[in-house]
Amino acid sequence: MTDLTAGLWELLFKGVWVTVQLTVFSAALGAFVAFVVGVARTNRLWIVRFLSGLYMEIFRGTSALVLMFWMFFVLPVAFGWQLVPMWAAVLALGLSYGAYGSEIVRGALAAVAPAQQEAGIALSFSPWQRLVKIQLPQAWPEMVPPANNLLIELLKGTALVSVLGVGDITFGAALVRNALGESAPVYTIILVMYFILAFLLTRVMRAVERKAKAGIGQAPQKGQGVLRKLTIPRQADAPSSDLSKSAGGA
Amino acid sequence: MSAEKNPSTAANGGTNAAAEGSELIKFDNVTKRYGSNVVLDNLCFDVSPGKHVTLIGPSGSGKTTILRLLMTLVKPDEGTIKVAGEYLSHEERNGKLVPAGEKHSREVRKNIGMVFQQFNLFPNMKVLRNITEAPVHVLGLGKDEAEQRARELLEMVGLTDHIDKYPTQLSGGQQQRVAIARALAMRPQVLLLDEVTSALDPELVAGVLDVLRDIAHSTDITMLCVTHEMNFARDISDDVLMFDAGRVIESGAPEKIFTDPEHERTREFLSAVL
C-alpha cells in the first residue's frame, strides 16, 4: 500500500465521525417525519391523508442531492438566512428519507389485524389510545427490518454532503487522494469503512428487532448462525397452530 | 358505577339511571344494509336488565350484526338503538336526533363489554396488562385497584398462573378466558358474546363454557349471546331469539324453542344443528 501518513489517516477518521453524526441526526429527523407522516396517512380526515400523501410524493420524488443544494443555495436567497452545510444536509436527508420511512410506517400499521382495532373500540379506548397502545406497538416489529435497509441507504446517502464541503468520509478521501495522487488505495479503504459502518448498523438493528419481537410475545431468536438453521427446532418451543392463527387476527 | 370488590357480583353496575322503561337494550325499527343486501330488516326487540338472551339462526341472518351494532363497529341505516336509556349511535342535540359523535358513543359503550370469536387479545401486552389497561386508562381506576380486580377475575377464570405471560404463550381456550376477564374488568352491564367457542379446538370448548355458565348463574350481568352451542344456550338463556333473513321469526323460553318450536324454519334449523 502507498504511504498513508498519520495526518492523512486522521482526515479519514475524522470523516468517519462526521458520517456517523450525519447518519444519526438525519435518521432521528427521518424517523420523526416517518412516524408523523405515516400515521397521518391513516387519519380519518381526508385532508390530513391528502396533505401527508402530498408530502410523501414530493419528497420521495425529488433528489436528495438537489434538495440539499436547494436548502443550501436557494433558502438563503429566498428567506435571508444561511444554513450551516452540516444542517442543510441533515435537513435534506432527514426530510427525504423520512418520506420513504413514512411508507414503512403506513404499511406496518395497515398490517395490524383490524380485529385489534375492534377490540380496542370494545374497551372504549380513544382513537389516540388505540394508536399508541395497540397499533404502533404491534406494527413496530414489522417496521424494523425495512427500516434497517433504509438506514443503510441513508448512511451511504450521506456521501452526498461532500459536495457541500462537509468533511465526511468521502470528503476526507478526496483530500487524501489529492495529497497522494492515487485513487485505488484511498477508495478501497473508504469502501471498507462504509461497509464496516453498515455492518455495525445491521447488528444494532438486529438487536432492536429481537427486542421488538420479544415485546409481542415472540420468543427472541438466539444464535441465527448456519448451525441453528440446520437443526430442527424443538417441538416444545413452537406454539400450537391455533395460537398462531389468533395472533394473526381474524 | 359502584366500586364493589367482588368481581362476580360487580360485573353488573346494578340498576342504572336507565330505568325509564324496564329494558336495558332497545332496538327500535333498526335496519342495516350492506349494499342491496338487507341484513337487519326493521328489527325491534328489547332486553331487560339481567336477562340472558341467545340469538340463534343460520349464518348471514344478522345475529353478529346486532352485536356489532351494539359495539358501534357498524352504524344502523335506519332506526335507533338505546342502551341503558341512552341513544347509542345517535345523540340528541337541540331536541333533534343526530348521528352520534365518537365521544358520545364511547360513553354509552362503556356499559357494554364484548368477547370475540378470535379472542383479539393484545399481543403486545402480557395477560395482566391486557386486563388492566382499559380500567386504568379508560375508567381512570388506580393501578393497584385495577390489578387487584384483574387478579380476582383471573382466579375466577382459573388462570392465576398465567398472569405474566404473553397471549401467544397461551392456548386458545386460555386466551378466550383471559378475553372474558378483560371484558368483565370494565364492569359492563351488558356482555356480548360473539361465537366465543367457534375458533377453539373441541377439547378446549368446555372450559370456556364452564366459565360463562358460572358468570351467567352467579352474576346479574345481562348477556347477549350468539352461539352454535345449543346445549349451552339452553343452560343459560332466559330467552332465545331465532333469526332468519334479518328478522326475528320466533322467540321464547329455551324449553319452548328447543323442544317445541312453532315455526317451520326454526325446526329445520334446529334439526340441522342439534
UniProtKB/TrEMBL annotation, chain A:
Provide a Gene Ontology MF annotation, just one: transmembrane transporter activity
Subcellular location per UniProt equals: Cell membrane
Q: Where are its TM segments located?
A: 20-40, 52-73, 186-204
Under InterPro entries, the record lists: AA_ABC_transptr_permease_3TM, ArtM/GltK/GlnP/TcyL/YhdX-like, Ectoine_EhuC, MetI-like, MetI-like_sf
Main subcellular location of this protein, as a coarse class: membrane
Which family does the UniProt entry place this protein in?
Answer: Belongs to the binding-protein-dependent transport system permease family.
Q: What is this protein called?
A: Polar amino acid transport system permease protein
Species annotation: Streptomyces qinglanensis
TrEMBL record, chain B:
Tell me if Glycoprotein is a UniProt keyword of this record.
Answer: no
The record's subcellular location field reads: Cell membrane
Q: Which SUPFAM superfamilies match?
A: P-loop containing nucleoside triphosphate hydrolases
Record key words, sorted: Amino-acid transport, ATP-binding, Cell membrane, Membrane, Nucleotide-binding, Transport
Domain of life of the native organism: Bacteria
The secretion signal range is: none
- By its UniProt entry, which Pfam families does this protein fall under? ABC_tran
Q: Which GO terms describe its cellular component?
A: plasma membrane
> Any keyword ATP-binding?
yes
- Note the topology in the membrane: Peripheral membrane protein
GO molecular function terms attached to this record: ABC-type amino acid transporter activity; ATP binding; ATP hydrolysis activity
Which parts of the sequence belong to the ABC transporter domain? 25-270
Q: Which PANTHER family match?
A: AMINO ACID IMPORT ATP-BINDING PROTEIN, GLUTAMATE_ASPARTATE IMPORT ATP-BINDING PROTEIN GLTL
User: What family does this belong to?
Assistant: Belongs to the ABC transporter superfamily.
What protein name does the entry list? Answer: Polar amino acid transport system ATP-binding protein
**What organism is the protein native to?**
Streptomyces qinglanensis
Upper taxonomic lineage: Bacteria, Bacillati, Actinomycetota, Actinomycetes, Kitasatosporales
